[in-house]
Amino acid sequence: MARPKIPRNICGQPANICFKPNGIPMTQLEQVPLAEDEMEALRLVDLLGMQQQEAAKSMGVSRQTLANLVKAARLKVVDSLINGKALMTKSIN
């Protein structure tokens, strides 16, 4: 049985729930889900420029967990940009 996720502090909400390439109908696009905690990790580290230790404390997780979230989120964003996929935000609740 998998260990349950520790609740994470998430302060920001995405402006949109979907980012997709222009001119291609949603039905023709592969969707890449980006969890709220992954988006928050990106916001804190990449947008606000926080150190990972500080961002981890803000989210209430370990530094290693935050590093894993950032790595997974960056992979999903790059996959969406390079391969023309729709990036969808989703709740972790």
Automatic annotation (TrEMBL):
HAMAP family recorded: UPF0251 (MF_00674)
Official protein name in the record: UPF0251 protein GCM10011607_13110
One Pfam family in the UniProt entry: DUF134
InterPro entries: RNA_pol_sigma_r3/r4-like (IPR013324), UPF0251 (IPR002852), WH-like_DNA-bd_sf (IPR036388)
Sequence similarity: Belongs to the UPF0251 family.
